[in-house]
Design goal:
The protein is an alpha/beta fold and 281 residues long. Helices cover 17% and strands 42% of the residues. A hairpin with a 2-residue loop joins strand 1 and strand 2. Helix 1 runs antiparallel to helix 2. The two termini are 46 Å apart. The N terminus is likely disordered.
Length: 281
């Protein structure tokens, strides 16, 4: 955000100079020199504060990112702020570009909107994100391309307590959690992959945690690679905890390829059915 302000300031100064009366001596040189001096000073300030360049966003910046989202489809999203919570509503279909969000620590994005498209990912949580992305009742996030929701942050939690996250692509992924220690919790709603060899939730990062206490985690598209929850080989020491809900796949309900991984099941349903060879765990 700071860099954008700097660029705007520079263009503003150039515009102001063009509107001034012509100087008597060397007008072009004085105008350009003045603008360059100001730019150098501001860039010096910019360089002295590197921590702000990649800082996560507060509620105001998140509202701007959501409401000015250039999706390339039809419709619009709205964002409403209440304290540290940003609630997203509205409808967008045919989205061809991803929506990037980076809620700061203590900031929660509550998603209640309909977002359909063929972008991969459809929503990405940036590496600087530290807050929570919550999928609530009425939410419908649906991609026909490779990934629906991508978490690129170690510190941003994903909570699904209503609505739906769906991926319809062949070999597609509903939620991909790519970083160390990232968490996905499903207490309600549905996370689903309906394409052939689709996977509903995939964890690639070490020490990642998936918790299911309610709702549905489904992969019913068919194919030998169909999995509801998948801990990849890079997810060393990751963990899955299931105490409720329904984890179902026409292939593997829970597939563990990670070393030193933990799977705890104390309730709910772990199911594998269909014509493909599969297992509960």
């Amino acid at each position: 955000m700071l860099f954008q302000y700097i660029v705007r300031l520079f263009h503003f100064l150039i515009g102001r100079k063009k509107e001034e009366k012509v100087m008597k001596r060397n007008p072009c040189g004085k105008r350009n020199l003045s603008a360059l001096v100001v730019l150098a000073l501001v860039l010096g300030l910019f360089a002295a504060m590197p921590g702000q360049v990649h800082a996560a966003s507060g509620p105001g910046d998140l509202v701007d990112a959501i409401e000015y989202y250039s999706h390339g489809g039809q419709g619009a999203l709205q964002a409403h702020v209440s304290g540290n919570t940003v609630t997203v509503t509205g409808t967008v279909t045919g989205a061809a570009q991803p929506l990037s969000l980076d809620p700061d620590e203590g900031i929660k994005v509550v998603w209640k909107a309909k977002l359909w498209g063929n972008s991969s990912p459809l929503i990405v949580l940036d590496s600087s994100a530290k807050g929570t992305f919550e999928v609530a009742a009425e939410a419908d996030i649906n991609s026909s391309n490779a990934i629906t929701l991508l978490n690129n942050s170690m510190k941003c939690a994903i909570l699904v307590n209503g609505g739906r996250i769906l991926n319809q692509a062949a070999s597609g992924i509903g939620i991909l959690s790519s970083k160390q220690g990232a968490t996905v919790k499903v207490t309600g709603g549905t996370v689903s992959a309906s394409g052939n060899n689709g996977r509903a939730i995939v964890c690639d990062g070490p020490s990642a945690v998936v918790t299911v206490t309610g709702g549905y985690v489904l992969a019913a598209g068919g194919g030998w690679g169909t999995r509801a929850i998948d801990l990849s080989s890079s997810a060393d020491k990751a963990a899955i905890h299931v105490s409720g809900g329904d984890v179902y796949a026409s292939g593997d309900a829970i597939a563990v390829y990670a070393y030193n991984a933990t799977v705890n099941v104390s309730g709910g349903y772990i199911r594998s059915t269909g014509t493909t060879t599969g297992s509960g765990i």
